[in-house]
Amino acid sequence: MLIIGIAVGALTGITGSSGVLVVVPVLSYMGINFKTAIGTSLLVDVITTTIVIYVYLRKKTLEPGLGIILGLGAIIGAQIGALIAGILPVLPLEIAFTAMTAYMSYYVIKKSYTLNKHKVKKFEIKRNTALGIGFLLSIPVGILTGVIGTSGGIMFVLIIMVFFSMKAQNMVGTATLAMFLSASSGVAGYYTIGHIDFLAAILIGIIALISGYYFSILAHKLDQKYIYRFLGVVFIIVVISEIVKIAIL
To answer: Is the model's pLDDT at 119 over the cut of 60?
Structure first.
């Protein structure tokens, strides 16, 4: 629980990424039902992001209005996703989780090599239009939150990167606020279907809260290309472990 908490705090504090890619596979290997692991991971995200949001607000590297708009779209989607998760059997969820993790490993490693070379092309549209598009795109992100437990941190970063102009730290901070709202909605959905281990969530969450605080401060000093490469390696390890687990089952 200590190691998981530190890892979650590092992932969220530095990259704005959800802890789901660490929490879900480890809890599953510990014998916790996969759906319960997802619900528990979402609660851990809620706990962890509170301190991360505080640090980014204090550093003035967070845009609250944008984060809330993206988060509201995700809230709607997360409720839809939780209902879907309550109906689906476990195996399709695990396969979807593995596929999403594989894509994220490719995305973050590729991003690490292009981070300082050129920016992702931003669409030249009016801000109000961009906000509307961001809200709509956040709904499917929320659905993924409800179905496979990913709170959408990296996906929110991508939306912000494409439609809005801001520094990397500001993107991470704003995405973390949206992720907090998305995860909160997911928690409500999973609580309704009875798939949250509160003891595990609190133990991991408290450790991640402390870890996230210090790693959030560190995030404002590090070159992010190395962080993304490390994150990509972690994701690849998770993919391999999930493939082995699915094959055994």
So the answer is: no
| Mean pLDDT for the chain overall | 81
pLDDT tens profile 76-94: 888 887 777 667 776 776 6
Burial 151-188 (b: 16+ CB within 10 A, else e): bbbbbbbbbbbbbbebebbbbbbbbbbbbbbbbbbbbe
Q: Determine the pLDDT at residue 149.
A: 65
Find out whether 237 and 77 touch, Cβ atoms under 8 Å.
Answer: no
Q: Burial of 127 by CB count in 10 Å (0-12 exposed, 13-18 middle, 19+ buried)?
A: exposed
Alpha helical stretches, state H, the chain: 2-15, 20-29, 34-58, 64-87, 90-114, 127-148, 153-163, 168-192, 198-219, 224-248
Q: What single string gives the DSSP state of each residue in 62-109?
A: --HHHHHHHHHHHHHHHHHHHHHHHHS-HHHHHHHHHHHHHHHHHHHH
Domains held by the chain: number: 1
Which residue, 33, 151, 152, 140, is CA-closest to 80?
Answer: 140
Q: What is the rounded CA–CA span in Å between residue 74 and residue 10?
A: 23
Q: What is the pTM of this model?
A: 0.74
Structural domain for 107, as ranges: 2-248
